[in-house]
Specification:
Rossmann fold; about 40% helix; alpha/beta; 7-stranded mixed beta sheet; about 325 residues; Pyruvate dehydrogenase E1 component subunit beta; 12 helices; plastid; single chain; 14 strands
Amino acid sequence: MKKTLMFDALREATDEEMDKDKRVLVIGEDVGHYGGSYKVTKGLHAKYGDLRVLDTPIAENSFTGMAIGAAMTGLRPIVEGMNMSFLLLAFNQISNNAGMLRYTSGGNFKIPIVIRGPGGVGRQLGAEHSQRLETYFQAIPGLKIVACSTPYNAKGLLKAAIRDNNPVIFFEHVLLYNLQEDIPLEEYVLPLDKAEVVKRGLDLTIITYSRMRHHVMQAVDILVQEGYNPEVIDLISLKPLDIKTIAESIKKTHLVIIVEECMKTAGIAAELIAQINEQVFDELDAPVVRLSSQDIPTPYNGKLEQATVIHPQQIIEAVKRLVKLKA
C-alpha cells in the first residue's frame, strides 16, 4: 500500500493504461506541456509525446467530436474537460454522437471513449464553474456515468472506464483532488456498475456519491457516538444505478435518506426515488428523504455558496427525525 493523492491516482491509472495499450491517448486543453489544470496528466507528455497527449484549442465541441471519431477508428481516447461545465459546449457531440453511434450504426462502431474532469461546487469558482452536470447526461441513452469519491476507487474505476467499449462520463469532484488514501501497489480494476456499501448498519440507509460521501461519513461518526447505526452506500455508478444493492439495504433498514450535491429538481435523487418506489415501495416505513442543493445558480459569495449545499449537521438532523418518526 502507498499513500496517494486522488489526482495522482488518476494520473497513475492513465499512465498504466497508456503504457499497456498504444491505442489509449489523452485529448484536451492544457493536458500536455502544462500537465492538466489539476495535474492529472503531469509528466505524460514527456513520456508519450504530442500524438498521444494532445493539447487542443479552446473548442470543446471540436476536440470532443475528434475524439469520438478517433474512437470509431479503434483508438481509445480520454477527453479531459478542464472543467466539466465546459463540456456543455460539446453536448451535441456527447449525446448525438458518443451516446448513439453504436446503436445507429447497427453495432458496426464501438465508442470506447472516456470523458473526464472536475465538477461540483468548489470554493468560490462562480456559477458557471460550479455546475453539477450528472443529470444532464443521465437522460442520454448509450452512456455510462461514474462518480469517483476516493483515490482508491478513482484509480480502479478509471482503468475500467478506459478499457470499456462504451462511452463513459467520469465525474471527479474539484475539491477531492488533494484527498489522500492508502491504495494497493499491485494493479486492480473496479466494476463500473456497482455501488459500494461504505458502512453496514441497521437503523436506516443513507445513499450518496462523490464529495457528499465524506460529508455523510462526518455525520455518521457523530451519529454512531450517539447510538445510531446507519448503513451508508456510495452509488459510484450513476448510470446504470445499482438498484440491487440499494434494494437489499432497504429490505434491511426500511428507511432511506439520499444526500447529493446535485440540484433537487430532476436530480439523481429524483430518479433514484422513482426506482425505489417502483421496486421496493412496500419495504419503506416512511417516504424517502432527499437532501439536495438549492435550485439556484451557485453564488460566488463564499457564505452564500456554502448555504446552497448540504452539510453534516443537516444530515445528522435528518437521520434523527426519520428514526424518531419510525419509532
